[in-house]
Amino acid sequence: MLTEINFDGIIGPSHNYAGLSRGNIASASHAGDVSQPRAAALQGIEKMRHNLALGLPQGCFMPLDRPDAPWLAALGTTPDAAEAHLRAQAWSASSMWAANAATVSPAPDSADGKCHLTVANLVTMPHRSHEWPGTLAQLRLAFADPAFAVHGPVPAPFGDEGAANHMRLCSGHD
């Protein structure tokens, strides 16, 4: 028997509207707006509690460590010394979008009968390019069962946004 689990990312205290996703209309139109991460996190928790009250399986991803000082160190700078655009990318809380966490290959579609999760690594967006190690660690924890196979990212030139833009088309879902 297969069970569908809804996952949400908890919004962390570094959530902001820095307009980091070039070409994304929502990102651009809200750039510079004041964010309310505490209120947003509480709304997300309320939504997850509602799902649980309905009897729906619910999982969550925790906020990643921010700022990402090791990423900045790899770029030769620190959170305090980084230029403003790099600092904003190091503080990015975009991992809250759980749909961008991984591409999921359902067990019925896999030759080995396991559900496969491949962590996303959207290398074309600097603020997303460094979130995959933290997300991978959480995926390995959440799906540490033999029914699942959790994979690292695809090679960098083939950056993957995750399941946000994927859809499963099939003749039946049973």
Question: Mind explaining what this structure looks like?
Answer:
Helices cover 30% and strands 12% of the residues. The model has no long low-confidence stretch (mean pLDDT 88). It has six helices and five strands; from the N terminus they run E-H-H-E-H-H-E-E-H-H-E. Strands 3-4-5 form a three-stranded mixed sheet. It has a two-stranded parallel sheet with strand order 1-2. It starts with 5 loop residues before the first strand and ends in a 23-residue tail after the last strand. It is an alpha/beta fold and 174 residues long.
Estimated helix fraction = 25-40%
Give the spatial strand order of the biggest sheet.
3-4-5
Radius of gyration: 17 Å
Q: Which consecutive residue ranges, at least 5 long each, have pLDDT under 50?
A: none
Straight-line distance between termini: 9 Å
The biggest beta sheet is recorded as: 3 strands, mixed
- The assigned structural class equals alpha/beta
Residue-averaged pLDDT: 88
Please supply descriptive tags for the structure shown above:
alpha/beta; L-arginine/glycine Amidinotransferase, Chain A; 6 helices; 5 strands; two-stranded parallel sheet
SSE topology sketch:
Layout: E1 6-9, H1 25-30, H2 37-53, E2 58-61, H3 69-74, H4 84-91, E3 102-105, E4 115-119, H5 126-129, H6 132-142, E5 148-151
What's the gist of this structure?
This protein is of the alpha/beta class and 174 residues long. Helices cover 30% and strands 12% of the residues.
